[in-house]
Structure formats: structure tokens, C-alpha cells
Write a structure and sequence with these properties.
Elements lengths: L1 H21 L7 H9 L3 H10 L7 H25 L1
């Protein structure tokens, strides 16, 4: 449940940064976006990146989204195996 809430926050953060980019306003630092992705936010970052077409040209964002999503999926799989 907490992971779903966190990924929703990450998703909204990327959406907010995209809106600020369109409006030429102060932006959320890339370090923050990348850190949110690595700290269990891979799914939200991956979804928002493609949905908002935000940061998709930067290879290190692509690598972070996919890498963190795979790590999160693996961790969730192991947790579910351990629980059952």
C-alpha cells in the first residue's frame, strides 16, 4: 500500500515538473526526480515519463526508470514469495 502511494507521489512530481517546463517556470531538480525513482518509485516514474513525454530523450532517465522498476518488481516478488 505504501509503495502504491509513493509511486503516485512520484508520478505527480514528474507531472508537476512537466507543467513547470511548459510554463518556463522554476523546475524540480533532476537529482530529486532520479532519487525518487530509485527509492521505490520506479513504476510511477516510468509511467509518468511516457504518459507526459517527460525526460524521455535523456538516456539516464530511461535507464533509471527501467532499472528501478525491475528492482522494485524483483523485491515485490521476493516479498510475496516470503509471505506465502
Amino acid at each position: 500500500m505504501l509503495i502504491a502511494i509513493w509511486n503516485s507521489i512520484v508520478f505527480l512530481t514528474y507531472g508537476l515538473d512537466k507543467r513547470k517546463a511548459i510554463q518556463n517556470r522554476w523546475r524540480i531538480p533532476e537529482k530529486v526526480l532520479l532519487l525518487e525513482s530509485w527509492v521505490l518509485g520506479g513504476f510511477g516514474a516510468l509511467l509518468s515519463g511516457y504518459l507526459f513525454h517527460h525526460k524521455v530523450r535523456k538516456w539516464y532517465f530511461q535507464a533509471t526508470w527501467w532499472g528501478s522498476s525491475l528492482l522494485l518488481a524483483g523485491a515485490l516478488f521476493l516479498i510475496l514469495q516470503w509471505i506465502s
